[in-house]
Structures are given as structure tokens and as C-alpha cells.
What does this fold into?
Amino acid sequence: MTIALSELLNIPNPKSYKVHLANWNGESQPLDVFVRDREEWRLWNCWRSKRNDFNRKYVLSLIDYYHEPNTWLFGGVFEVVSRSAEPRTLSYESLLTDQYQNLIGRLKISWTRNGRQRARQLEGIVEQLLIKEILSEQYSGEHFCGFENINHNFSVIENIIKLEKADWKSSLENVKGVYAITDKSNGKVYIGSAYGDSGIWSRWSCYVYTGHGFNDELTKLITSKGLGYARENFMFSLLEYRPMRTDDKAIIDRETYWKNVFQSRVPFGYNRN
It folds into this structure.
């Protein structure tokens, strides 16, 4: 049995609300922003386009839950307390209200969007918004998916490491291995490895905080284009993992093997040797 959002949320005057449909903006996923920085997420609800999308008193924010199709995570209700006439600036001052705060980051909603609208009038879609699930606790990032299933955007790995997600950390800090970083913008691959006393967690933490992990070609790229380039374009995958007791030479040999498989050396990829 499906339950409409209107049966859970008591909104006596839907015409006072605009729905903010927050999704990929070309640089960041709002779900990742919501997890890593709530002030940054608030600013997502202050942005004004030329169309003056949020021209009502309240903004009901829904976050594209990109792990699942046609699913949105409730991101709170914001009150627009002031407006500027200047378009394409942070021209709203929007503050999080106490409306339904116990459901922020917990309520998942099913709705299929037609087109690319960023804002909709609540009264026009409120009966189409269906409750999919209420999480037992606020969403704080993806659970560990298993070594063989890692194929994640830089921004997802960034959140996992900065939040020190326990299930990911306990898994990745206790294995050596070989990994691939793929640049989605051009298809180039960097093959790297973690060995010695450093597990995958430690090695990937270096990428998160630098964008390049001090690899020569990636350092040149990120120095030129900035950390935002890594967030937008880099994908991490784990090709092989081994116990920490594995001899380092075995890991290095497997790294060489995968470099040959992917033809990842310059000029075809980002490996120098």
C-alpha cells in the first residue's frame, strides 16, 4: 500500500511552499553536500536563478538520492526571510525551520520527475510524492558495499573518509591492494597500489585531502584545474585486495600487471612508469 507524503506531513497551505529538487549541479551531488557540511547545504537553498524559483515563504527541500532511481531524501523546510533583486547570486537568505526536523535525512520519497525542473509548486505535486521509507537514523553516507563493488565518485569517497565511516575504515585500513582512478572526462586511468604499513584507507585519504596523492601526472592536473576537478571527474575502484601480511613485492607486481592491462602509462593514462 502506498502512502502519500500529505498523509504524513500536515501542510495546511501548500501554496506557501515551493519544492526544491536538488540534484547534480555540474560540480557536486547535493546528497554528498548534505552529509559533509550542513551550512553548505543551507546555501544550496539560498541560490537564486534568473527565474526567481523560490518565490514563496517556504522551501521544502528534496535531495536526489542518486543511489536509487526516482528517490528523494527529505532535506528540511527552509524559510525565505529576505530576498535580493540581483539574480544568479546567493540572493535569498533562507533559514532551516523546525518543521519536521525529526524526518530530515531520514524520510525517503518516491517521485518521478518529468524534465529538469529545479523547483515545483507544492500543491501541484504533493499527492504524487509517496513515502518510500523512513530510515532508523539520519543518512550519513553509504554503507560499505564490499571490496568487489567499489566504483565510487571522488566526492563519495571524500565523505566516507572525512566522516571516518566505521564500516569502510575497518575494512579498508586492513588490506593492501591495487586500485584504479578513472578520469570520466577523458577515459584516462591511473593505476596505484597501497603496500608497506599503509592500507587502502590511508592511501585514499591522501587523495581526498590533496586530490592527487602526490603522483606526478595527477599533481600537474590538480594543480592546474583544482580539487573540484577531482570531485567532478575521478572514480575510484579496487582491482585487487590482499591481507596486510602480503609481501610488498607481490602487490607491486600486480600493480605492474594492471598497468599493462589498462595501458595506463603516459600518454594513454596518468602513470609515468
